[in-house]
Amino acid sequence: MAGRPAPDAIAHLGGRADITVRGRIEGFPVLIPAKARWQGVLACRNVDCKGETRRPVSGRILFILPAAACAYHTGDYLQMRGTLQGWDRPTNPGEFDYSRFMYGRGIQGRLVVHVARQVQCLRTGKWWSFGYWLSRVRGFLLGRLQHYLDPEAQGLAAAMLLGERSNLREWDKAYLAASGLAHVAAVSGLHTGVVFLLLMGIGRLLTQSTRLGAGAGLLGIWVFGGLTGGAVPVLRACVMLTCISAGHLVWRKTDPLSGLGLAGLLLLTFQPTCSSEAGFQLSYGATLALLVFMPKCWKKTGHWKAGAQLVLQPFLAAAVILLVISPLTLFHFYMFTPASLLANMMAVPLLSVAVVCGLGTGLAGGICPWLAAGLGKVCTWAVLGIKATSCFMLTMPGGLIYGWKPAPWVIVMYYSLLVLGFYSRRFFLWVVLAVLIFIVVYSRQGPEKIPPNEMRVTFLSLGIGESALLETGQGLRLLIDVGTEKEFFWRIRPLLASRGIQQLDAVVVSHTDADHAGGLKACAAFFQVKLLIHGGIPCFGAVADNSSQPACLDHIAQRVLFQGESLSWGKNLKLSAVWPPAGKKATTNAYCLAVLIDCPGGRLFFPGDCPGWIERQWHPLPQVKIFKAGHHGDQSASDQALLSQLCPELAVVTPGRKNMYGFPSATALERIRSWSRWTLNTAEAGCIEAVISPGKPVIWYPAR
Question: Which of 53, 517, 631, 684 is most open to solvent, judged by the fewest CB atoms within 10 Å of its CB?
Fold first, then answer.
C-alpha cells in the first residue's frame, strides 16, 4: 500500500477494542511455540463494530490467535473477534520504522484475538488450489524440521529453508547481522541457486538428459519460491535462472545482467514499494557486485594456481560484495562488518549443506524415517556451525564497526565513482579513489559534537523498560539501565549504533528486574563495556532469567556502590550512590541503586524504582537540574519530601508505552509538576534529549 489508505480501508478502524473481522487467509499461518500463538495475514472483506452495522472493508491485517486455536490454512475464510491495533511509529533515533515496512507490504494493522472460541472458520479453502497445497506442504516440512532437528537449530533452519523467521531468536538475528551473515537467515538467491543445482543434478541423473534436468531444476525453484512466500531475492533468482537456462536450452548466449534487469522490472511492476526496502537494495547490490566486478577480478587472478584460486576467489567475492553494499548497511543498519569477509567464506559451504540436508529431511520424513534422522543430524550440525561462526566473528577486533547514517548524496557519489571505474581501464584505481573519497566525506558528516562543559542526556521511549544515555563533551558515555532484552535489540542498540558508539565507559544497573536489566547481556555482547556499576547484585548469571543467552559478563570490570560511596571520571563527572545502604543487595525495588550525578553543567538524579517510604530516608539532597521520576511514575514513588529537596528544572517520567499498570499515576504527575519547571512523559513525547551546561537553564527537545 502506497500513499494514503483507501476510504474503506481497515486502517481507519485502528484502536477498536471489540471488532469482528471476516476475510480470507493469505500467505502461510505459522505457530510460534515460544509465544504460544498463531500468526498470519488476513485479506479483509467486512467488519462488525460494536454499535454499528456490518460494512465492507478493504486491506490486509496481521492476525494473532492463541495457540489453542485450530490450525488454519491458505484460502480459509475466517471470522474473528478481537482488538484491532495500528502500527507504532518509531519514537527513538535509529529505530527501525516497522510501521512503514508493514504498510509498504499492504498490511494495515494487527488484530489480536485473546480467546480461541472467538475464531470461526466459515469456509475452508479450495482443496484444488495451488496455494492450499503449498500451505499443506510447507506445514509438513516445518513439522519434519521440528521433529528431526535439534531445538537450537530449528528456528534458523526454518528461516534458511522456508523463509519462516517467526521462531528465529533475537540473538541469532543480531549475531548474523553483526557478522555480515544476515542473508543466511533470509532465503536469498544463494539458497535458490543451491536448490536449482541439486534438483538439476538429480533430474539429469535420473533422465540422462541435460535439458530435462534443467527443466526439473526450474520447476523446482518456482515451487521453492512459492513455499518461501515469494520473497524478493527468491523471485529475482528464479527469473534470472529461468532466463539463463532458457538460453542454454536453445543454444543461445545469455546475459545475466539482462536477466537481473528483467527480474527488477517485473518486481517493481507488481510491487513498486519494494525498491525502498533494505532487502531489495542489498540483494540487488550484492548480485550486481558479483556480475559486474568479479569478472575483472578473475582476469587479474586467472594465471594463479588452482589451489590459490580456490581460496582467493571466495575471498574476493566476499570483498566485492562488502565493497558495494557497505554504504547501504550503514544507511539502513548503522554498521560496517569487516568480519563478513571471513564469515561468508566459512558459512557459505555450511549453508549449502544445511539447505540440501534440510530439504532432504523434510522430504524423507514421511517415507524413510532413518534417512530423515541422519540428514537431520547433518543439517543440525551445519546450522549450529553457522551460528558458531557468527558468534566467533563478533569476537574479532574490528569485526563490527558502528557508524551513523550517510547522506543519500554521498551514497550516490560513491556508486557513481564505481560505475566510472567499471568503464575505465584503471578500474582498481577508481575503486580506491571512491573508497577514500567516501571515507573523507562520511567522516565529516558525523553527529554534532558536544561542547567540553556540556552533557547531553537521552531518555529513551521504550515499551515497558527504562534506559537513559549520558554523553559528555569529554567523550564519556554512560548508560543508566538497559531495558528488556527485546527493547535493547530493537531500540537501544540502534540508537547507540546510529551515533557511532562502540564503547560505553560505564553501564549502571539499578536492580535486577527485567525491565531495567534484561538487556544487559546483549549490551555486553555487542558493545565494549568498560565498567559495570550496581548496588551489590549477588549473581549476574540470574539477571534477566528470560534471556536465551548464557551469561557473558565475566570479562567486564564491576564496581559495587553503596550509600555514601562515589566514583569519579576526572574532574568533570562524579557518580554518587544515595541508596542502598551497605549490606543490602539491589535485587528488589526497595533497595535499588539510586545515583546522583555531578557534572560541570549541574546535577542529575536517578532514583530507580525505590518506593516513597525509602525516598523519605534520603536527606539532605542538593537541588538538581534533571530528575528521572521513580518507578515509571507510580503513585508510591516521587515522594513530596524528595521533590521538595530536589526542585528539578526538568522532570522526565518514563512509564513505557505498553505498561500494564496504568503508569504514570495522575497523583504522581500532579505532585511532580508542582515541584518542577517542566514535566515530560516519554510515552507521549517519545525519546527526549536534554542538554545541561554551566550557568544556563536546561534545554530539551524531542530526539530525532
Answer: 53
